[in-house]
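Researcher: Dear colleague, please comment on this protein.
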Amino acid sequence: MLSFWKTRWNASFSAFAMLAAFGATPGFAAPSDPQLLKKQSSWNWPDSQTVLQQVDSYLKDKLSGKELADAKTAATDTNASRGVSLLDYILTTTAKVESGIESLKQLLDAPFTPESSAKIESQISSILANGSIPVWLKADLQLICCRYLVHHDLFDEALQRLQPLSPDSSSDPATWLFCMAVCQHHLMQRTDCLNTLDKLLERETELPTRYAITARLMQADIRPLKEDSLDEIARMMNDVERRLALGRAGKSVREKEQAIVDKLDKMIEKLEQQQQDQQEQQQKKNQGKSNGQNSQRGSNPMEESRNGGEKGPGEVDKKDIGDGSGWGNLPPAQRQEALQNMTKDLPSHYREVIEAYFKRLATKGP
C-alpha cells in the first residue's frame, strides 16, 4: 500500500501536475454553451482587452515611442489573450519599466537554490510596498511568484501568498484556483481542496487542457482519503520527507513527525484490540463446545449408581486468552517478520522511528 502511494505520488501525479501548471501550450477549448457556463460558474475570466489596456497605460506612463514598442516586443507572446501566457506577458513588459520587477524576474529565471525562496519573498515584499505600482499588477506579480513556489514544492509558502488573494483579484483566476488546489492537495487539506477543484472545474471546457485533466486526477486521488488511514500516514511521511529535502527541520516538522508516530500508535492499539476481541470470541466458542460435550455426557448417565472407574488428577489444560498486548508475546521470529512487512516500503527515516517504537513495545513490562 505504501509503495503504491509513494509511486503514484512522486512519479505519476507530481511530475504531471508540474508539467500541467507550467507547460507552454495553453490548449484552450471553446465552450459548447458560453451562456450556460456563465450562469453556472461562480467566477469569470477578466476581459483580456481591459487587462492589456491596463498594461499599455502603465507602460505609457513610464515609456514613450521606441522604448514602449521595444518593451512590448520583448514579451514572448505579444498576442497573449488570457491564462499563463497573459501573466508572462505582464511580467516581461512591466520588468522593462520597473527595476524592482526586473530584479524579481531575474530571481524567477535563475536556477532554484535553497536561498531562492527567501530572496523572492524579500523582493515581492519590496514591490508590494512600492506605491507607484498599481494594485492589479501587484496581485498578478504575487500570483506569478506563487506559481514559481508551487513548481518548486514550496506549498506552504505559496499557500500563504495565495490566501489573501482571490480569483477575481488577478488577471488569471484559473491559475490562482489551480495553484491553490495543488497546495491544498499536497498538504492534505481534503475538504478545501475538493471545494477549490469544484470551483475550478465550473469552467472545465474553458480551461487549458492540462489544468482540467490534472484537476480531475487530484479529485480522484484525494476524495478517498480518510483520517488515520494508512493512506494518510503514507502521505504525511512523503510531506515530511519533502520538507526535510528542502532543509526544513524545525518545530513544525518535528510536530508532524510526532503526529505520524501518534497515528501509528493509534493504529497499533486498534489492531491489538481487534486481536484481543478475536481471542475472546475464540475462547467463548471453545467454551460453548465444551459445554455442549458435557451436556451430551449428562444425557447418557450410567445405568446404575456406581463408580465409573475413571481416575485422574482432576486438572485441565489452561486456555491462552492473551493479554493487553499481543505484540510483546509474539515469538521473536514472527515479531521480526511482522516488523519487516510493515516497514519495508517506508522511507528510511521512518523505518527507524517505527522499528524503535516496536522494540520499545516488545521490551516494555506488563
Remarks:
- The two ends are 32 Å apart (CA to CA).
- Confidence is low (pLDDT under 50) at residues 1-9, 15-19, 24-32, 318-325.
